[in-house]
Amino acid sequence: MKRLITGAAARLWRRPPLTADQLRALRPERILVVRQHNQMGDMVCATPCFRAIAGAWPDAEVALVTAPVNHQVVAHNPHLDRILSFEQRLWRRPIALARFLGALRGFRPDLAIVLNSVSFSATSAYLALWSGAPLVIGGDGSPFGSRVSEAFSLRLPTSPDLDRHAIDHSLAPLAAVGITTDDRSTVVVPSSAQDAEAAALCDDLVGQGPFWALHPGAGKRQNVWPPERFATVAAAVARRGVPVLVLHGPADGREVAALSARLTPSAGDAPVVVAPSLSVGTTAAIIARADRFLCNDTGVMHVAGALGTPTVALFGPTDPALWKPPGEQVIALRAPSRRDDPRGEEFGWMETLDAGTVLAAWSELRVAG
Question: Residues 74, 45: contact at Cβ < 8 Å?
Fold first, then answer.
């Protein structure tokens, strides 16, 4: 039934066909990019795509449609001129939806581009088509069971399997039609206000000297290193006289509580301080100020990689060859084996990574200056 509905929609909204040569020859004034997936790490990995698009059409104004959770990740990206936030609950709020669609059509794009990763978003496709753009290109939805991409002017090759690094996987559909970049670096830019807030918080919480920061949570439970081991590592660093700042998000309460319960500071130790829950932008600005960073394989890892902060990233069931941020400043430590775990095959990995190995890797990071 879903395929029948999307097939009918595709026939209704079908755009004029376009070849790769014709696409590259276009001179659009306004380009709409739609990528409203809500995974933070995937969005950071997609930022080289924005560079490729801006490089192909340097005179165009580029707007991005994204989920609210990623707004601050891309808000000050130098390759984007405008950000439009779309949240799924707008489908249940007709007035707000009408207001958003009005803003979308008000942009008057000449070209809309739907970006994909290892999934196909029918919502992104519909938003690109509803934008009124006379030409729409994007990933082929057929490998994902969707026919709505049949309405596109040009369908780009897609794959549901992550067969290369996530950055290259995101770039691959565009690269197939000659829209690419040699610069694979990712981009996250905190605002000046977020920088100022981060500076004040750091001064208040850990003083004006060097500090190390860590983030004990992860969006996927199977990627969480035991928080008591984060506590062990943090305490060892504090005994050396280096303050440690613990960062976290709204979903990390369990990990922060478990970490805090294991901390037993001694006289002479530097502080281990739990920061308040902060916005993504302010968290990014704090990470940029940290001497070094420690985290699980999760979205904030990609933020740290984009900022260039020396980082140890802890991996379990996922492959660092596919997900580790590029660059020598990020060191990946992968769990050496798996313990039996009744929760499933993706669980039981992180428990085999010991605190001594993590502490040694974190201590040996190369830090500029």
Answer: no
Residues with pLDDT less than 70, the chain: 1-11, 368-369
Q: What is the domain partition of the chain in residue ranges?
A: 2-175, 192-362
Under a CB-based contact definition with an 8 Å cutoff, are residues 116 and 33 in contact? no
Strand order in the sheet with 154-156: 82-85, 61-66, 30-34, 111-114, 135-139, 154-156
Q: Which CATH architecture has domain 192-362?
A: 3-Layer(aba) Sandwich (3.40)
Q: Which helix (H) or strand (E) holds 25?
A: helix 20-25
Render 97-163 in DSSP notation, one character per residue. HHHHHHHHHHT--SEEEE--SSS--HHHHHHHHHTT-SEEEEE--GGGT--GGGGSSEEEP--SS--
Predicted confidence at residue 48, as pLDDT, reads: 98
Closest by alpha carbon to 307, among 318, 295, 317, 319? Answer: 295
pLDDT at position 92: 80
Cβ–Cβ contacts within 10 Å for residue 118, how many?
17
The C-alpha atoms of residue 190 and residue 122 are separated, in whole angstroms, by 30
Instruction: State the pTM of this model.
Output: 0.93
Coil, strand or helix at 360: helix
- Among 2.40.40.20, 3.40.50.300, 3.40.50.2300, 3.40.50.2000, what is the CATH number of 2-175? 3.40.50.2000
Query: CA–CA distance from 242 to each of 207, 292, 304 (Å)?
Result: 11, 11, 20
**E strands, the chain, where?**
30-34, 61-66, 82-85, 111-114, 135-139, 154-156, 212-215, 244-246, 272-274, 292-296, 311-315, 330-334
CA distance from start to end of the chain: 61
Provide the pLDDT for residue 3: 54
pLDDT per residue as tens digits for the range 273-304: 999 999 999 999 999 999 999 999 999 999 99
